[in-house]
């Protein structure tokens, strides 16, 4: 097979061969890092560092997993070390960020500028659910967040996640169960789409702001999550969200530019970023 030949060349020190293999999963790896770090620049930096470190350590690759899993292990370790220096986001991060934006004219101007500079930009309900999934994921302990992203959004098996995290099967299954439970509980109490008492109204506010011609009620009726909220338990609603988010590339969707500035506002609210970013 061509891939086996290319891998053999890479193992012999051919950086072009390694780059060819790396490109095969680079987009997915960058998307994963972006969801994990909630910052495009950080994701790009760690992606770059991962490529360099993986090529440098390629002689240690013994084929006990796929090359993709092995590279994800390196990237995850680098991201984990970075995230340990950050604090976990709080469940009310969106409200804190909104308050910050309302009090800061420059931030409001940046959001408007992003919208006006991207002619085909959209920020529909699904785009916000994607952003919200990332924000709530950052409420989790790092290992839970990693396990949930790898399994529920990027379709890694439990066995592969064991390799990436260096954990036993039992521990990984616990991380998944616990992570999903925490996320489902936070969604259940905050999401205004499925709970009329939910405090997060960004879906409607942003969709109305950036898509003024779109009928809100029509969007709500068509949204599977809203329809499902009447008959599903919160754990099932979690998987509805995960499946919706899985189909979105957060770096290339029509709402990507706005999502990036909103995540930046959240980072500001958590004290992680500079207003000059």
TrEMBL record:
Keyword annotations from UniProtKB, A to Z: Plasmid, Sigma factor, Transcription, Transcription regulation
InterPro entries noted in UniProt: RNA_pol_sigma-70-like, RNA_pol_sigma-70_dom, RNA_pol_sigma70_r2, RNA_pol_sigma70_r4_t2, RNA_pol_sigma_r2, RNA_pol_sigma_r3/r4-like, WH-like_DNA-bd_sf
Gene Ontology molecular function terms on file: DNA binding; sigma factor activity
Gene Ontology terms describing biological process: DNA-templated transcription initiation
Highest taxon above the source species: Bacteria
Domain RNA polymerase sigma factor 70 region 4 type residues, every copy: 140-181
Pfam families hit by this protein: Sigma70_r2, Sigma70_r4_2
Ranges where the RNA polymerase sigma-70 region domain occurs: 25-88
Gene3D superfamilies the UniProt entry points to: 1.10.1740.10, Winged helix-like DNA-binding domain superfamily/Winged helix DNA-binding domain
Entry annotated with the keyword Nucleotide-binding: no
Family designation: Belongs to the sigma-70 factor family. ECF subfamily.
Protein name, per record: RNA polymerase, sigma-24 subunit, ECF subfamily
């Amino acid at each position: 097979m061509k891939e086996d030949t290319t891998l053999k060349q890479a193992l012999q020190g051919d950086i072009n061969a390694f780059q060819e293999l790396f490109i095969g999963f680079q987009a997915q790896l960058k998307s994963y890092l972006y969801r994990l770090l909630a910052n495009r620049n950080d994701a790009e930096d760690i992606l770059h560092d991962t490529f360099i470190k993986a090529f440098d350590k390629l002689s240690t690759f013994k084929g006990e997993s796929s090359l993709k899993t092995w590279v994800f292990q390196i990237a995850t370790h680098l991201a984990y070390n970075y995230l340990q220096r950050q604090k976990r986001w709080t469940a009310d991060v969106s409200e804190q960020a909104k308050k910050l934006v309302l009090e800061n004219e420059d931030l409001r101007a940046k959001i408007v500028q992003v919208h006006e500079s991207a002619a085909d930009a959209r920020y529909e309900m699904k785009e916000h659910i994607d952003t919200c999934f990332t924000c709530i994921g950052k409420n989790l302990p790092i290992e839970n967040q990693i396990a949930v992203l790898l399994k529920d959004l990027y379709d890694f098996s439990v066995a592969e996640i064991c390799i990436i995290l260096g954990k036993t099967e039992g521990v990984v299954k616990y991380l998944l169960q616990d992570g999903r439970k925490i996320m489902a509980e936070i969604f259940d109490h905050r999401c205004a789409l499925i709970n009329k008492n939910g405090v997060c109204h960004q879906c409607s506010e942003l969709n109305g702001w950036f898509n003024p011609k779109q009928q809100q009620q029509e969007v709500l009726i068509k949204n599977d999550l809203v329809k499902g909220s009447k008959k599903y338990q919160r754990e099932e609603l979690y998987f509805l969200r995960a499946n919706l988010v899985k189909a979105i590339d957060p770096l290339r969707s029509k709402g990507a530019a706005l999502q990036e500035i909103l995540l930046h506002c959240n980072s500001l609210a958590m004290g992680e970023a500079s207003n000059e970013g």
